[in-house]
Amino acid sequence: ARNLHSAARRPKTVAIGPRDMSRIDLHLHTTHSDGSQTPAEVVTLAHEAGVSALAITDHDITTGLPEAMATGQTLGIEIIPGIEISSRHGESELHVLGYFLKWEDAQLNERLTALRESRHRRNPKIVALLQAAGIDITYDEVRAVAGSDSVGRPHIARVLMDKKVVTSAKEAFDRFLAEGKPAYVPRDLPSPADAIRWIREAGGLAVLAHPTWVKTVEGTLTDLARQLKEQGLDGVEVHYSTHTPRQTREYLSLAKQLGLLVTGGSDFHGLTKPDIEVGTGKGSLHVPDHLLPKLKDAVAAL
Ligand code: AMP
Ligand code: ZN
Ligand code: FE
Ligand code: FE
Known about the structure:
The protein is an alpha/beta fold. It has helices at residues 39-48, 65-75, 106-132, 139-146, 153-162, 169-177, 192-201, 221-230, 245-258, 291-300, and strands at 23-28, 51-56, 78-89, 92-99, 205-208, 235-240, 261-265, 287-288. An eight-stranded mixed β-sheet has the order 7-6-5-4-3-2-1-8. It binds adenosine monophosphate, zinc ion and fe (iii) ion (2 copies). One fe (iii) ion is lined by residues 27, 29, 84, 267.
């Protein structure tokens, strides 16, 4: 899988090399949730992309952090402990990122374990719907592909790819797994307020992930962000792989208007999202490292 991210496939416009240390990436997934690269591989890719600090933000799990920290120490990259928690807002999902949390905190880990259990309740129902559609697939196969306790739809997608039912994760979502498709099953999700509170109670900063995905129920995104701020939200993921320049400006002004911190990251998943690279996203992502001291000041002031 490493050749996927080799220099040859890197867009030519990305001239920033390993010695340019102005870039950070605060949104990365590993094999400990639904990414395809190990924590050590992700940190190594970040090093090659000139990233000076990164956050591992696996879904509902923190077990990838020790390996990432060890590799970070070897390569001289700062590793920020992170998490990504999905919550429900109306009919759609709202993802909350957590940074600098006390990731070994017992209460946090009980809560994350419960979230992973809700995944184990949901996934077999998805598999049953796929079986009903005539596809030969079992949850044991999905768990084997996942290899960790945080099992998600991208793992089901990977089994469908391995079985040549689909040729890409995108096709698996478009045909079967996405909301509204034949094998979609909703998951019990916490409220945004709970996700924010759990991160805060673990000593972390809570950040609204990829606002481009958020579907507001009523009112504007600004109204929603203001409400989330009252519930403890600290920041907004302004810089993101799929944000257009116009969206980036819009979210930047939203953050300024509400006094929220600015963060950013690629949401790298490896083969699950093959067009997104560590540090550079789709080629034009650049999360400036001067954002990091502001986050650290905010954590220190909590
Ligand atoms: P789950 O956590 O099991 O609900 O799966 C959701 C995850 O699937 C998201 O965090 C994304 O990483 C990934 N995902 C969602 N939609 C797509 C898509 N169309 N193609 C590839 N991956 C997707
Ligand atoms: Zn994911
Ligand atoms: Fe997300
Ligand atoms: Fe993510």
